[in-house]
Design goal:
A 5-stranded antiparallel beta sheet has the order 4-3-6-7-8. Strands 1-2-5 form a 3-stranded antiparallel beta sheet. It is globular and about 25 Å long. α1 packs across α2. β6 and β7 form a beta hairpin. It is of the alpha+beta class. The chain is built from 3 helices and 8 strands.
Length: 106
């Protein structure tokens, strides 16, 4: 389930561990793969490098995540309750960078 993080400005907010979130949003194939990505320092939360596997993440955070050969920048709109189908996972975030943009032909 979700944990809570206390923010001085807004009070308690629901949060999830970043490794669990990456797995639930289908940005990592397994929790151990998500933990390896975080431990290697490849994830950014609100512009800051994340190296703690248990780093809490809240709705409203912006994550920079490597997925394959692309870098995805996503805004987390809500926290998932489970690892559901891809369509359900994608409903919890917005992609801020168009990672599928084709290179212009010269």
């Amino acid at each position: 389930g979700a944990a809570f993080v206390t923010d001085a400005a807004t009070g308690p907010k629901a949060s999830l561990r970043i490794d669990r979130l990456l797995w639930m949003l289908r940005l990592a194939p397994s929790r151990s793969a998500a933990q390896a990505i975080v431990a290697a320092g490849h994830i950014r939360r609100n512009g800051e490098r994340v190296t703690r596997i248990a780093q809490p993440v809240c709705a409203g955070d912006v994550l920079t995540v490597p997925v394959g050969k692309a870098i995805r920048v996503i805004a987390l709109d809500s926290l998932p309750a489970r690892r559901g189908p891809a369509v359900e996972a994608q409903s919890h975030y917005r992609d801020l960078a168009n990672h599928t943009q084709e290179k212009p032909i010269a």
